[in-house]
Amino acid sequence: MARKPKPMQSEPMPSKTAQPTTVPVTPVAAENPLAPPTTVGAAVTPPAQLSEAELAAKGLELFNDASLSGGNKASCATCHFSTGHTNNKTYVGLDVVADGDPNGRNTPTLWGVGERAVFGWAGQAATLEDSIRGIIVNRMKGAEPSKESLAALVAYVRTLNYPKNWQVKDDGTPSADASAAVKRGYDLYVGDGGCGTCHQLPSFDKKSKDDIGTGGKFKVPTLHAAASTAPYFHDGRTASLRDAVKLMWEFYAKKMESRLPTEAELDDLTAYVGAL
Ligand code: HEC
Ligand code: HEC
To answer: Which H helix or E strand runs over 247?
Structure first.
């Protein structure tokens, strides 16, 4: 991320807590008349020289700060539970809805989000900044975030990586001591299942969208950590990973007029995807 060498901008930002001009200045502002205006969730505006680590630390605070949302209803961590992962729920706005609701969106993990190029299930945001801004303003009904708050949140979520996995190497191939099922599953993944054409190794996503018959074009999501991101698909339509894998193979077989898997093959492919 490009860091601005110039001092902080000082034009007023729209804010729900902006004081009317008739209210006396707060003691903090009196002590430092040059302090830039603050916005909700950005009580302290970081100076321009913050290191990436300091910015990320600020971002972690904001990530747990419910004042980013209208009415202090939720923080990022409410839904991206467990260090930026997912609480496994499907939402419309801030309301939990039944998995499979066509308007619902299932909470994606933020692990590995720094490596993605398409954000939101429908790929509605081109950058991480746009994605987070849209979530604060539209989903959380919060005040317009300051540039500094956005930069801090982006820096924080970029630090969230996938856990290391002993069965699968960094290039996506099974390690020597992976289980036999995982090894067979990998062969199906890059072979007859056709999965690798969309969920490409080693990121297991694709930088674009596809229509797989789930109600429109959706981004090809990463399959890293899929074992713990249930429910599956944009609307959370399948509860088990095996059912998600089955739906995908059936889609691919229909599209390519190729064969369907046996039950044992579904088990193996699920073992491989579940090990990612
Ligand atoms: C009410 C639950 C909820 C809250 C609160 C929430 N998110 Fe999300 N987040 C979601 C859902 C659901 C999606 C998928 C949205 C979509 O596709 O339209 C999402 C998507 C994202 C994405 C895009 C990830 C991707 O791979 O496409 C990012 C980044 C993100 N959230 C970060 C944040 C940050 C940062 C905050 C706090 C400012 C936050 N979220 C607050 C539920 C939530
Ligand atoms: C034509 C491209 C394409 C192919 C081939 C494909 N997928 Fe997908 N996959 C997608 C898209 C697009 C989605 C998201 C659709 C949605 O959310 O409605 C998806 C979603 C998934 C999900 C749900 C992920 C989550 O986090 O919710 C799993 C699991 C999955 N695919 C596994 C597979 C497997 C296993 C194969 C091979 C049998 C495969 N896919 C083949 C495009 C593809």
So the answer is: helix 241-256
Query: For residue 84, how far is its CA from the centre of ligand 1 (angstroms)?
Result: 10
Q: Is 40 in the pocket of ligand 2 (CB under 6 A)?
A: no
CA dist 133 and 125 (Å) reads 10
Structure confidence at residue 8 as a pLDDT band (50, 70, 90) = very low
Closest CA to 96 of 111, 125, 74, 128: 74
Which CATH number is 236's domain given? 1.10.760.10
Per the structure, the count of domains in the chain is: 2
pLDDT category of residue 44 using cuts at 50, 70 and 90: low
Asked if pLDDT for residue 9 goes beyond 90, the answer is no
Ligand 2 atom at minimum distance from 121 CA? 17
Question: Can you give the residue range of the structural domain that contains 68?
Answer: 37-158
**80 in contact with ligand 1, CB cutoff 6 A:** yes
Establish whether residue 111 lines the binding site of ligand 1, counting it when its CB lies within 6 angstroms of any ligand atom.
Answer: no
How far apart are the C-alpha atoms of 11 and 146, rounded to whole Å? 11
The ligand placed nearest to the CA atom of residue 63 is 1
Q: Average pLDDT over the chain, rounded to whole?
A: 87
